[in-house]
Amino acid sequence: MPAGSRTAVAGHGLIFRNPTSRIKVGQYQYGVLQPLIPAQVNRSVAAATTPATRLILALAAVHAARVAQIGTLMLDDVDLGNRRLTIAGRVRPLDDLTMKLLLDWLEHRRCRWPNTANLHLLINNQTATKTSRASNHWISASMRGQDATLERLRVDRQLEEALTHGPDPLHLAEVFGLDEKTAMRYADSARALLGGQPEYGRDAPHGVYSW
Hints:
The protein is mainly α. The chain is built from 8 helices and 5 strands; from the N terminus they run E-E-H-H-H-E-E-E-H-H-H-H-H.
């Protein structure tokens, strides 16, 4: 990534803020979570070539959703009118990128399987004729072999929040529903990566995402 704080993924228009631009170069203690590098993220974005895989990528990279949580999402979890999405019982606001990808997927879903009775948000040829959820294997298939897997993108999103807003475990717990121990690990990692730099307040620039 260039030295600037943002980069556009060629051919997709997806812009990721680079939280590493403020990181002090040096030796980090064992166990410190490390952010993905832009090239790794770019390759995963390039691998997301269908409406389903693009939405799946955004759910992990923007909303820090786990693979199993993505698979269990129901149509009723999507509230387009109020721009809200419920993931694992936690209501999250819908950003412009996720809203667009949701609309693209729902239109594709309606055209491809107009008579399906499956109420899960994400379905495929196998589950469209049933009522069961899509498998974790299918959900993660497009990112398999990538450095930036769905799990690493999820972790990177939470670490990015800690780097952007400062190492505040209470904020991380509020945004992502993390338990105390997990929130502390992200906060400690962000503090180590920032190398003692001043914490960033809530007015720090967010990552910008647009497909």
